[in-house]
Amino acid sequence: MKKQVATHFSRAGSTYAAAADVQREVAAHCAGLVPVGHYPVAVEIGAGGGLLTQQVRSHATWERYLGLDIARGMLVPSAVSGPGEALIVADGEAAPLREESADLLISASTMQWYASPRISLPANLRMLKPGGRFALCLFVRGTLAELEATSTETGFGSVLEMPDTDLYTSILDAEKGIECSHRVTDYVREYPDARSFLRQLQFTGATCTAGKRAFSRQRWESFRQLYECRYASGCGVRATYRVLFLWGRRA
What keywords appear on the UniProt entry (predicted)? Predict the structure, then answer.
């Protein structure tokens, strides 16, 4: 699954920035959770096209920055500057950093892809030094609920199975020394039609799921008609993205 995720996002490297309007807005809100200040060592998981990096730069500084992304094609060299900054191809679930080595940990729209969040998320947080800050956001259950319901009913397509908010909040509650706040926000987007909506997802690379189904014109037509009828909006059709924000510090 991880290899597929990397492949899908790498293929979307040239279209991601223009298509990722939800991710861009989410990144801006996540960046706002990082306190103004200087962080000697900053780490970003899922650096992608630099959407979050650019936003955090407006009010935070660092001496060293390491941006990780599992998809080589998503890493944009222009997102970093200076000898103290680097981008590397690496899985956030196997981040190449020691415990207590970072002063800031940030991540946006990435950790929903974790295979073992109960293990990996605490490991990520343990990279923080005492007093280190973190600001994370990820998509949770309820994201693309319209797509999931229509796919289930028509047999066309599938949606990534995402954990519920409670899983992540319980993980952080159980992690010793972590002070954390959280909130959940729904972002609703409108698209001209079902085809435009699916194309937008494709351009962001967020199309890798464990439940892919064989394409057929009949199933597609059933999907299109049902989606456009059931989830019609003033300007076409709607889609909902549910985002969990987690922010705080290691005591």
Answer: Methyltransferase, Transferase
Q: Which domain holds residue 51?
A: 2-141+161-187+241-250
Q: Look up the pTM and report it.
A: 0.94
List the CATH number of the domain containing 179. 3.40.50.150
Residue 205 maps to a domain: no
Give tens-digit pLDDT for 73-86. 778 776 777 789 99
Rounded-to-integer distance, Cα 40 and Cα 100, Å: 12
